[in-house]
Amino acid sequence: PTYAWIASSDRNDTVRAAISVLAEGIGAMFGETPWVSALATDPDGETGKRSVGPNAADGANGADSGILVGTFAANERLREIFGVEAAELGREGFAIRTKEGVTAIGAHTPVGALYGAFHLLRLLATGADPSGHEVFERPANKLRMINQWDNIDGSIERGYAGPSIFYRDDAIDFEPARIRDYARLLASVGLNAIAINNVNVHRLESRFVTEDYLPRLAELAAIFRVYGIKLLLSVNFAAPIEVGGLPTADPLDEAVQQWWHERAAAIYEAIPDFCGFLVKADSENRPGPFTYGRGHAEGANMLADALGRHGGLVVWRCFVYNCKQDWRDRKTDRARAAYDHFMPLDGAFRDNVVLQIKNGPMDFQAREPVSPLLGAMERTNQVVEFQITQEYTGQQRHLCYLVPQWKTVLDFETHALGGAAPVKRIADGSVHGRTLGGFAAVSNIGADPNWTGHPLAQANLYGYGRLAWNPELSAEAIAEEWALQTFGANRRVADAVVGMLMESPDIYESYTAPLGVGWMVNPNHHYGPNVDGYEYDKWGTYHFADRDGVGVDRTVRSGTGYAGQYRGSNANMYESLADCPDELLLFFHHVPYGHRLKSGRTVIQHIYDTHFDGAQRAGELAQRWASLEGLVAADVYDEALARFREQAEHAKEWRDRINTYFYRKSGVPDEQGRTIY
Ligand code: GCU
């Protein structure tokens, strides 16, 4: 057998998890489950004084090859194998080396060993040569966080994969085995923190910080802890009033501060390694410091002081904007809001505050520019927030692989400090020398047996974790890893799946809102086309289409001034009609339908062409999937096929509604005379 045994001298739940992950994974891949040494499985470590399996006490003597996994502190042999090279691995890194039949996975911490175990499985599943492993890995980002938007009634805000796995009927109610599976799944890609409830914190969830709920939350924390994942809670800024019965939630009020200090102490009593609070304040009607004439820094710092003495963090969201806009007001611009609110506060936050900034200035559209706030603040910790759940990108009924979009964001050059400062180096803290930073993302899982509704939507969760660990990986490499690990070593399946994933964001963008203008969805639930859905809504996310043209003037010269929030040449590029990239044209400029794009086509002809083309390619996705019948498990095949068929139908609806709308507005016919209703 490839691996006959697994051994470790660690006596630790996390290393034990690593061992069972390896045993199961290797058993599934090679058909033979390795023998696990007694010491490695025995919780007390009293039986089995020998540290490894048959004939393998020092690895080299054994006829069979095996795996030695664990921490350097507990495994002398691992110290010998890696020597001084181990110094570079940091707290969460790992090394893998195959030498004389022994594959050694070494780390400074149990969780490092766990990450190494998953990595070995990934290498094996993607066809690496088992005899030649030589890997040194450490995560690029310190915080690699997932945000659940789950509510205690069991619903999930923007959830498209069934109800919550954490809550049911106004109670914390979970199957430990399912939570453990989720923890394992998150750890398999190196995620290390989870905010366990919706950022919109409702009545009962506001009480999560009390003894009513802390015992159950501590049980959840204990499951996640084994997999190296720390818990955060989303908190209600008005909790001192709503839960504590105080007359105010003013962050400068002493009784309010005292209340949060007591809550923090109670939380750490129950969950000693609690990660911190996630806060959505003064945003979309949520309470916040503005009510008391205070700013975001005063609000965040007050909570940071309460948590700080226990080592906790405050993750404060920057999704703050005026959500009630009058269409006549052409200066208020939601895109400007995060920067306008937070840029003046640079340097005003405590060291244990991290600002969580959405990747774009609007709200997770299929296409929008990168938030100009990312990188602008030099003296403030920041994490970039992505949305894995596909709120505006097909709601896990359409295929939309989001990793290419995230890569575009991460590689975007902010021109901070005038040097090389892509978003990924802002997020990891290196550009501005911040010690805290990383990624956050809204989860896309629910209680559906396949986790994500659309089976291929799993690739987004997988890809998010991989990028949070290593943003240098390519979207294609990640897709391939995922396909091979999910569907097995069949090259034909992997190639087909990778091709479909990689083309999917362009297909989706083609049949939905054109040229970066965004929205054009049904209000509230955000599924399906509705060009004027938000145009005549007080929420005010406009495209300003009329008979002459379309797009939002965000220039400094004649528009909202948003383009001026970028640094250096980025500001000039977006300001200039000539230099603005086609795909973002309507985000930055209002142009006539006859305006010629860099592609040579007019805006109106581009709209027609992309919509006919996108709908056609969406139809082809169903056929491409159908060619895999018999090569993927029948239930997965059926679930995905049903969704591809729905996507094909809905893409036609998008095509027809968008085309008809702009044909009737502009009066310009399609050059190719295709059917426009
Ligand atoms: C979007 C989304 C909301 C969510 C909000 C947020 O607006 O539609 O459901 O609460 O983002 O990120 O806070």
TrEMBL record:
TM annotation in the entry: none
Pfam families named among the record's database cross-references: Glyco_hydro_67C, Glyco_hydro_67M, Glyco_hydro_67N
Domain Glycosyl hydrolase family 67 catalytic residues, every copy: 127-451
MF-aspect GO terms: hydrolase activity
Superkingdom of the source species: Bacteria
Catalytic activity annotation: Hydrolysis of (1->2)-alpha-D-(4-O-methyl)glucuronosyl links in the main chain of hardwood xylans
Domain Alpha glucuronidase N-terminal: 1-120
E.C. number(s) listed in UniProt: 3.2.1.131
Enzyme class: hydrolase
SUPFAM superfamilies for the chain: (Trans)glycosidases, beta-N-acetylhexosaminidase-like domain
Alphabetic keyword roster: Carbohydrate metabolism, Glycosidase, Hydrolase, Polysaccharide degradation, Xylan degradation
Residue ranges constituting the Glycosyl hydrolase family 67 C-terminal domain according to the UniProt record: 452-674
Family under the similarity heading: Belongs to the glycosyl hydrolase 67 family.
Assembly information from the UniProt record: Homodimer.
Protein name (database record): Xylan alpha-1,2-glucuronidase
Species annotation: Paenibacillus aurantiacus
Lineage: Bacteria, Bacillati, Bacillota, Bacilli, Bacillales
